[in-house]
Structures are given as structure tokens and as C-alpha cells.
Design a protein that fits this description.
7-stranded mixed β-sheet; 4-stranded antiparallel β-sheet; 15 strands; single chain; 390 residues; binds pyridoxal-5'-phosphate; globular; alpha/beta
Amino acid sequence: MPEVIYLDNNATTRPAPEVVEAMLPYFNEAWGNPSSMHAFGGHVARPVAEARETVANFLGAERPEEILFEGCATEADNHAILGVAAAWNQPGTIITSRVEHPAVLGPCLRLRELGHNVIEIGVNNEGLFDLEAYEAALAATPGPKLVSVMWANNETGVIFPIRKIAELGKAAGATIHTDAVQAAGKLAINVKDVPVDLLTIAGHKMHAPKGIGVLYVRRGTRIKPLILGGHQERGRRGGTENVPYIIGLAKACELATAALSDGSETRIARLRDKLEAGLLATCPDSRVNGCRTCRVPNTLNISFEYIEGESVLYHLSDRGICASSGSACAAGSLEPSHVIRAMGVPFTAVHGSIRFSLSRYTTEHEIDITLRHVPEVVAEMRALSPFVKH
Ligand code: PLP
């Protein structure tokens, strides 16, 4: 494969070499089933228990039993939302935001079809959560309530005031879930300080492999299983444990903890800010989407007016640069993303939004190369755009 400049870390991240190394023995040597009665399988149970403890420490959980290993973040989000509502035995209210990932919006939609009341709270033009509307929704809804609001947005990186959201929700008697997939490894997470009941993370967004997610479940939270089967995860998620991936995730949590205190995030933010300043200076009619002072350090969402983000991405890809677009190509028509639309981004910019997301492996040299290529591509696209006066 040709060398690439990978600036799409909110989509997935490179598994850290230390993570891969930690996993390998669990493919090659200790490949037993941790539930087996024999010693060969039993030898694997202990590393899994230690990994659970490491993940619990990473999140500030009180006990390792509060950590459920699941197949991905989508499963963990579905489990949190559908599992809490299943424990109600009556219709209730789910309060979420308009800019959630489909892994949250999908199960909310399912609950609406089943007769629950689903309220989507909006954001302002900087992508910031509407706390007033949220408080009004909490006050106006009797019966059981679940709040599911993300910690940080995957497209813009905008951080929601999750502590405040959780405190207000708890005061109103709600169960609180947060999708922290884009916050984990970028911001310190501690459920001792943030009173959420349920929290989702994904391995592959923090340098562990795909195929492993975590649902943190605070002790005492009423939730039914989503995957019915064996007694694994104390009967809360059937399915033989994915041992190598669990080990890999725990290693990634250790590395993330170190990176959060060694200045890595400051370095990433400096590179992101360099990219942002350079693109705004060299690409006329460009604008940043999302609050610039309230973002995770690795994310830049920028719109180049009058052009399609997808065409920019294809041309960048030809030049070895991987980024992502805020739009999804649906049924042959280019639909702007629901996040960008919810922010009221002007029509001329809505289709031209591009997300660059960095990681601790991103180098200054890569940012410099990107800063050379993007303005050229944008200029080429603009020369072809029917919306630009030539
Ligand atoms: N939640 C957020 C905020 C995400 O960014 C993603 C992935 O992009 C997911 C959930 C779903 O993760 P996965 O596809 O690994 O299940």
C-alpha cells in the first residue's frame, strides 16, 4: 500500500504496536475459553479479570463488575438504551440530542416506534447543547426517563457539558447514559466526578482493534441484557469473551492514561490548530464548524464553500491523504450530515464540510504536506464549481 497521511482518526485509529504485541499470545498460546473448567482455559480468566480492572480504573469505576465487554460501541449504545427501557415495563421518555451518532439515534427511533416518548434536544450554530431546552424537557415529562447524550461529537469534536447534563438529569430522577466514544483517550474520564449511570467506549477509536466495546454500568442501574445467551458478563451479555481484544483494549487504556498526562494531547491540539489556521489562511471562503474553544484536541471540521466535500476527499485520497466528510452518500443523492444541518450551517457550506482528525501518531511533517495539498485541491474543485463566478 502507498504511504498515507492518516487524518481520519475519529473513524478508526491505528492499533498501537504495544496493543498488538499484548494481544498476540492470546491468539498463539493462551487461546482457551475463560469459562472452561480446565486449567488451560482457566489461565485466561485471570488476564481477563485484570483487563477488566484496568478498564475500570481508566474510567474511574468503583468496581470491575461495572465494566461489560461488548462487541462494539454500537452494541453498547443499543444495550444502554434498549436495556434500560426494557426494565421499565411501561412507556417512558428518552431525552437525547439531535447530533448523536446513529448508534444512539437508531435505538431511540425503535423505542419511539414502540410507544415511548423521544425528545431530541437541539444545538446552536456552534454545535453547543441547548441546556435550557433540556431542563424544560426534564421538567415536562412524568414517568421513567433515560437521558442519552454524547460526551463529544464525532463530526465536530464539540464537547457537551456532560457533568451538568448528568447532574440535572439525576435531580429529575432520570437514568443517564453517555456515548463517550469520541472523548475516551482525548479527555480525562472519571465517573466518580460525572454522575452518569452508563457510558460507552470503543476500542478502535483509541488505538485498540475494532470489535471490542465497553458499556460501563454503575452498580444498581436497572438494565436488561440485549444479547441473550450464556452466563458471561454475569449474565448481562451472552457470548464467549473476545479475550485477545479485551487484553488489547486494556493495554490501550494504559497507553491512553499515559498519553493524557505526558503532553500528547497538547501536541495534537497544536498540530490541529496549525492545520486550521493554515487552511483558513490559504483557502478563501472556508469556515470552521463547531465551537473552537470547546472541542476535543484532535478534531477539525471545516467547510469549503461552494464545493462538494466528497470530491475534495477523493482528490485528497489520490494524493495519499485520508480525511472524512460530514456528508453521507444516501441513495445516490448527497445528503448533508444531520450534525451539520442541526447547527444551521449555511447552504453554501453544508456540502463542503471535511473532518480532519489527528492522533498521537500524527507528525508535523504530515500536517505540512496536508497544508500544501488541500488548498490546491480546493482551488481545482472551485474552478469546476457551477456555484462559483469565474
Ligand atoms: N458513537 C460514536 C460517537 C462514534 O463516533 C461511533 C463510531 O464512529 C460509534 C458510536 C459507533 O462505533 P462502532 O462503529 O465501533 O460500533
